[in-house]
Sequence to fold (117 residues):
Amino acid sequence: MALGGATKKLQQIVDMAEETYKRLNELRDQVQEMRQTVIDTNRRVRRLERTVDDQGALIEALARDADVDVEQVLAEAAIEEAEPTTSESVPDARADATGDATGDADEVVGDAEGTDP
Fold:
């Protein structure tokens, strides 16, 4: 009996070791995939940063040609962003243009559904 018990325990240990090895390989694959994703994302971010820098330089050149003070525009934008605004102080542009903001939305929804508002 002692030999049978030892064999059973040894088999359990072997099964646990195989399961651990399997999980370890899965984890290694996940880490490799994640590493590749990070590398790809890093490349994309660098490419986007270059694009934004190029566009910024182009906009600044156009602004200079149009005699626009870029620093002043950026400062005003920063101030506007820092100041909280309420919905009451910012009128709905559609309501100003059409006189009825909800009417336009109803028409769009009606057109999308194929019905009249």
Summary: The chain has four helices and no strands. The chain has one domain: 2-85.
